[in-house]
From TrEMBL:
Domain Tyr recombinase: 101-284
Claim: Mitochondrion is one of the keywords in the record: no
GO biological process terms, semicolon-separated: DNA integration; DNA recombination
Transmembrane segments: none
Organism: Dawidia soli
Protein's recorded name: Tyrosine-type recombinase/integrase
Length: 290
């Protein structure tokens, strides 16, 4: 049964290191069941709590939480195999463990709607909409937007090259077909007019407009406008997470690592793990450990 579980998690394109850690946790759990003279299929909600309490004597709260997540996937596998009907781990969490905030992950059509909702035909509005398009379609970080130069846009190829940074790698990303036309208009018309009006000379793709319009403050105002239109939007990181989760459903882990600009595969895996646990769900009301 453990062997079939390993095959199950291998299908999710996890790294060998992660698969090995899953394997170790399941071995610990199965040994505990053997000691308690219980079968995997007979384990109840209360039995899981007993297992967690026994683990707390040896490992940290965070490690117990990690054990719990692996065992939850193990029982999801058993449900898929029609061995059981209910996951006994569902709804349990170790208290006192800080979690990354879970927020709504937008589906592709929702991201497209966010983009289409931004309507502003001023020079500033046209520039901002181009910036928003890179957030919702390419998952670009806000600090990467500021670094972009005109030469990074490859209109003939329909691609854009995103510069690397302290925590990200350079990558070449495909533009949506409508983005190619919009970038062409922005570079050849909107941007030139902004630069003429302000007297600027720069290779930067996105240029400031006179009157205290720094790109940093511009991004704050842009996200404020987006949040007013869609109450589910929290910040730009949420939009990036939505794009990465979309990619994970389309490509293998290594390709998503490249597209996201992640320096380490573990960064990409964290989005995959979140997707497996259900990013789009609200934080559940977990049973506390007594």
């Amino acid at each position: 049964m453990k062997t079939s579980f390993i095959e199950y998690i291998k299908r999710r394109s996890l790294t060998p290191r992660t698969i090995s850690s899953f394997d170790r946790v399941i071995v610990i759990f199965l040994k505990w069941l053997e000691k308690e003279q219980m079968k995997v299929e007979q384990v109840s909600y209360r039995d899981i709590l007993s297992f967690m309490k026994s683990c707390q004597k040896q490992v940290s709260q965070r490690t117990v939480q990690l054990y719990l997540n692996v065992i939850r996937h193990y029982y999801d596998h058993l449900i898929e195999e029609n061995k059981i009907e209910i996951n006994p781990v569902a709804g349990i969490k170790v208290q006192g463990v800080k979690r990354k905030a879970l927020y709504h992950i937008f589906e592709p059509h929702e991201l497209h709607a966010i983009y289409n909702s931004y309507q502003d035909e001023t020079l500033k509005g046209k520039r901002n909409k181009i910036m928003l398009s890179l957030l919702v379609y390419q998952g670009v970080k806000t600090e990467e937007l500021i670094k972009l130069e005109v030469q990074d846009v490859k209109l003939r190829e329909g691609k854009i090259e995103i510069p690397g940074g302290a925590k990200s790698e350079r990558r070449l990303l495909q533009l949506e077909s409508h983005q190619v036309l919009e970038f062409y208009d922005y570079i050849n018309n909107t941007r030139k007019e902004i630069m003429t009006n302000s007297g600027q000379k720069t290779d930067k793709l996105f240029v400031s407009i006179e009157g205290g319009d720094s790109l940093d403050s511009c991004m704050h105002r842009l996200m404020f406008w987006v949040r007013r239109k869609n109450k589910l939007v929290v910040n730009a990181k949420q939009l990036r997470a939505s794009v990465i989760v979309k990619w994970l459903k389309m490509y293998n882990l290594r390709k998503v690592q490249y597209l996201a600009g992640h320096r380490y595969i573990s960064s990409t895996e964290s989005y995959q793990q979140s997707e497996m646990q259900g990013l789009t769900e609200e934080v559940n009301k977990f049973h506390p450990l007594g």
